[in-house]
Amino acid sequence: MKIFFNQMITNHIKLRFCSIILCVVSLLVIAHSMYLPAKAWISQQLIAYSWEVTQKTKEASPPWPWADTTAVAKMDIARLNKSMVLLKGTDPTTLAFSAGVMHQYSTLSSNQPFVVAGHRDTHFSFLQNVQMEDVIKLADIDGNTQVYQVESIEIIDSDKTPLLLDMGQPELLLITCYPFNAMRSGGSLRYVVKAKKLKEMLS
Known about the structure:
By secondary structure, this protein is of the alpha+beta class.
């Protein structure tokens, strides 16, 4: 009888231990699943704040002290109720936090394009909802604004057709990978939204 009770106690302890382990594992899984959304939300708040600081000081301000990028423009698409602060650069680290503007095409100008790239499954997933004649507004750190209207939407194979930019055209190009629902990244197809300038820069 004593052996039987000892066995019961041992089994109970083992069961309780397994339950504790399962609870700990479950909590770790939940914490991990919440980490990325929380990180994304916090980074967006910091980027938005850095944009506000930039607007006040007229000087580029990194969203966090160790960031190697700064907010350079804000893009608004009224029909989609979409607003986004754009960072400078298109390296993987920058694109992990927002859409990025190509360094050599990151200034609103009357004689050169403004080129923005973003990931199809995060910050530029909304491009699939952009339509012809949609109006896009850009504002830079100096308070200048420029208005564009979508004039073409193309799917380009970057291995066969290189994206050629006309330096004499102050157009806006938004670029992401395609298709949007692809299981794997790294393909050669690009979704390119091109918009023509409607208004000169307004300060």
